[in-house]
């Protein structure tokens, strides 16, 4: 294979290079550059109006870029759109179908546009999303969750390398959101494809993605690794924040306060909780000290700074975009 | 070419799977059979044969204009409905170029119009044969071709206008409204010289048959064909340029 003319094309399935969109004099998306690697789930995160949807649509070629380019497996969306789009599967906002046709007929429509899709492939994808029994039903009789699944099916039919999803959980109830998340994880694993998903729901991103790209006002703010897979392993000397829930609150406070290694950050008397900052390696000492003072310990929890806290920090807090 | 055929099949299925699809065919069948019966009952010897009846029904002064309206109603939404349903964003990320997608839609619109006329002629002839017999007088085939052909051209022009409006406005209602208004207003003629360059007086080519008078002095058959060609190029040009450049937001 004579891979990738662009220098960044190591294992990047999808690369954005200085992608910009100007409407009039307003820059909706400004010099966005990031990569999605093989098998990765990447979140595109930002407040409303940050340019997520525009970015996703530019990747799919639905909206023209003013500047920059997107490469999918080394092919440019601008100059070799047909070659590039072949590797992209997409659900843009809600998946939409012809409601008066059956689920199967809708998938057949896709098949006629990409001749390499076999009938076996249709069956396989339908099985993957668990819609075997609904294929003969008209789509207007589908629930929103079923439509989402059919949406995933149509996006996967042509065996793309990267799936791009724009706000896939919009309008879903908590159960639906969870189902969607599970499906996406299954797909990333079983089909071995990369996923780029846009959302403004932080918690969602935290649970789904291994990396998030944060944008605001069309500009890249930061790229972060999240989740247990990506987070740095607990190092002995690192400070962590630990919450102790104890009985005999006052005594516990005294014990913890008297220890040089620990600093009490927060006191919540009603819940009998103490938030303490200390080194990872000192946690056992602290427990021993509490035990020696006969303080009952009900719960010890490490509090990680949530993505939400960080997100608000990155995007400048409570400003409503 | 094969992939283009598949796109046309897709478009045809999108139209034909709708429950309302049979309605225009049903209207034509009922109307033509009913009218044949009525002419037989009250028309005396007005109509001599199935040929005459079919030519009369197909012509723009007969049922042809109505068939054109039906064609416009059912094709105006071809592009706009994709926008309404939101399916346009999925249609355009399938590796088929926008030009090809739009061309397949236009081809489907033409196919549908043609199918209406084939149906109209077939039902017209069948009901004509039932009531008036099939004796062919001299020149009936020619009359039939002129009536059917000119009504088909008439329909295609308005279908193309509706198609363009659908692309430009992204609204089925607007596309239908504008082209229906055009069909109705098109029959009014302003007897001024400049008006002969306007689309409307040129649309009905059957006025030139049998040594008929053109609506405005100085118009000829080649002139009208040229004017129609220019308008068609404009309509299609505007449609394709807009569709290919549009940001799907």
What distinguishing features does this structure have?
A: 321 residues; alpha/beta; six-stranded mixed beta sheet; four-stranded antiparallel beta sheet; B: 249 residues; mainly alpha
Tell me about this structure:
The complex is a heterodimer of chains A (321) and B (249). In chain A, 38% of the residues are buried. Helix content of chain A is 32%, strand content 29%. Chain A has 321 residues and is an alpha/beta fold. In chain A, the strands form 3 sheets. Chain A has a 6-stranded mixed beta sheet with strand order 6-7-8-3-9-10, with helices on both faces. The N terminus of chain A is likely disordered. The radius of gyration of chain A is 24 Å and the shape is elongated. By secondary structure, chain B is an all-alpha fold. Chain B is built from 11 helices and no strands. In chain B, helix 4 runs antiparallel to helix 9. The mean pLDDT of chain B is 91. Chains A and B meet through helix 1, strand 6 and helix 3 of A and helix 1 of B.
List the helices and strands and how they pair.
The complex is a heterodimer of chains A (321) and B (249).
Chain A: E1 12-23, E2 26-37, E3 41-45, H1 52-59, E4 67-72, E5 75-76, H2 81-85, E6 88-92, H3 103-113, H4 119-128, H5 144-156, E7 162-166, H6 174-190, E8 194-199, H7 202-208, E9 211-216, E10 219-225, H8 227-230, E11 239-246, H9 249-258, E12 263-268, E13 273-279, H10 283-292, E14 297-302, H11 307-314
Parallel strand pairs in A: 3-8, 3-9, 6-7, 7-8
Antiparallel strand pairs in A: 1-2, 1-4, 4-5, 9-10, 11-13, 11-14, 12-13
Helix pairs in contact in A: 4-5, 5-6
Chain B: H1 2-16, H2 23-42, H3 50-58, H4 64-75, H5 77-85, H6 88-91, H7 98-132, H8 140-169, H9 172-185, H10 200-203, H11 221-245
Helix pairs in contact in B: 1-7, 2-7, 3-7, 3-8, 4-7, 4-8, 4-9, 5-8, 5-9, 7-8, 8-9, 8-11
